[in-house]
Write a structure and sequence with these properties.
This protein has 269 residues and is α/β, with parallel strands linked by helices. The protein has eight helices and twelve strands. The chain folds into two domains: 3-71, Arc Repressor Mutant, subunit A; 75-264, Rossmann fold. The strands form four sheets. A six-stranded mixed β-sheet has the order 6-5-9-10-11-12, sandwiched between helices. It has a two-stranded antiparallel sheet with strand order 1-2. A two-stranded antiparallel ribbon has the order 3-4. α7 (140-150) links the parallel β5 and β6 (154-157). The longest helix is centred in the N-terminal third of the chain and has 18 residues, at 35-52.
Length: 269
C-alpha cells in the first residue's frame, strides 16, 4: 500500500472513532508496515487533519499509549456557529403561544447538532466524564453527538419509567419551564456507582431539570463533572444550578411584538 493510501486510511479510521485510542501496533498490523513508517504516516495525517479545522491527532506515550483523533473547534468557528444559532432563534415564526419557541427542527438537524457538539467537546474533553447524561427528548441528539465525539456512553433519563428499562429509580423535581412538579427515572443498570457524568441539554430556564438530573444521578453515587446547555434563558437570573456553560442566552420572547432577543455567550471558553 502506498503512503498516500495509508495516510488516507489512518485519517478515515481515526476520525470515524473520535477520542478512541488506537495502539501503533494496530496500524502496523493493518498495513504490515514497520513502526517507523507508521509514525511518519501519522505525522503527515496529523498535519492534514489540523488544516481542516475539525480537530487534531494526539499521540499518547507509554505502554498503553497510541494515537487518537480529538474533535476541536476554533474560536472563529465558534462565533460562526453561535451566530447561526442566534439567527435561527430570531426567526419570529418560531414563536408559539405563551411566548415559547419551536426548536425541534434545530435539535433534530443531525448536521447542525454535530457542530454544536464540537463546542461541548472542546469545553469538556478534559472533564474526566465517564458518561454523557441527558433527559428526554429534544436534548438527546445533541447529547448523543457529544457522547460519540468523546467516545463515552450516553445515558438517557426518562420522564416516566419504561418496562424495557427493568428496575428503575424515580424522583420528583420542579420544572421551571412548565411551572410544575415532574418525574424522571433512570434504570438501575444505566450507570456504574462512583462514575462521573457530563450533563448535556438543549434548553434551560430555571435549572430545575438540570438539578433533577444531578439529584437522580446522586442516587447512583454518580457525580456531575460539567453541564453544557445549548440555550439558556437569561431570566430567572438565579438558577437552580450555579455552574453551567451555555452556547447562547435567550432573553425576551414576545409573540405580540414578534420579537426574540438572543445573544451568544462570549465567555464560552
Amino acid at each position: 500500500m502506498k503512503r498516500t493510501e495509508r495516510v488516507g486510511a489512518i485519517i478515515k479510521i481515526l476520525t470515524d472513532s473520535p477520542c478512541k485510542l488506537f495502539p501503533l501496533k494496530f496500524f502496523c498490523d493493518l498495513f504490515d508496515t514497520a513502526k517507523s513508517s507508521v509514525s511518519e504516516d501519522i505525522s503527515i495525517a496529523s498535519s492534514s487533519v489540523v488544516s481542516t479545522g475539525t480537530g487534531y491527532i494526539e499521540t499518547v506515550a507509554g505502554a498503553k499509549g497510541g494515537v487518537r483523533f480529538v474533535p476541536d473547534i476554533s474560536d472563529e468557528d465558534l462565533i460562526i456557529i453561535q451566530n447561526e444559532l442566534c439567527d435561527k432563534l430570531r426567526d419570529h415564526s418560531r414563536i408559539l403561544a405563551g411566548d415559547f419557541l419551536y426548536t425541534s427542527d434545530i435539535f433534530f438537524d443531525a448536521t447542525f447538532t454535530d457542530r454544536l457538539a464540537s463546542i461541548f467537546v472542546r469545553k469538556f474533553k478534559n472533564s474526566g466524564a465517564d458518561y454523557v447524561a441527558t433527559v428526554e427528548t429534544k436534548g438527546i441528539p445533541l447529547a448523543a453527538s457529544t457522547a460519540r465525539k468523546l467516545n463515552i456512553p450516553l445515558v438517557v433519563i426518562r420522564r416516566e419509567a419504561k418496562v424495557s428499562e427493568g428496575s428503575t429509580v424515580s424522583i420528583n423535581y420542579f420544572s421551571g419551564s412548565y411551572d410544575r412538579v415532574q418525574k424522571m427515572s433512570l434504570s438501575k443498570r444505566a450507570v456504574t456507582p462512583g462514575a462521573k457524568a457530563l450533563v448535556i441539554d438543549d434548553f434551560m430556564r430555571g435549572g430545575g431539570s438540570s438539578q433533577g438530573i444531578r439529584d437522580i444521578l446522586s442516587e447512583f453515587d454518580v457525580s456531575v463533572c460539567g453541564t453544557g446547555i445549548a440555550i439558556a434563558a437569561i431570566e430567572p437570573e438565579k438558577k437552580r444550578i450555579e455552574e453551567y456553560s451555555s452556547i447562547v442566552y435567550l432573553g425576551e420572547v414576545s409573540q405580540e411584538a414578534q420579537f426574540v432577543r438572543v445573544e451568544p455567550n462570549y465567555q464560552m471558553f
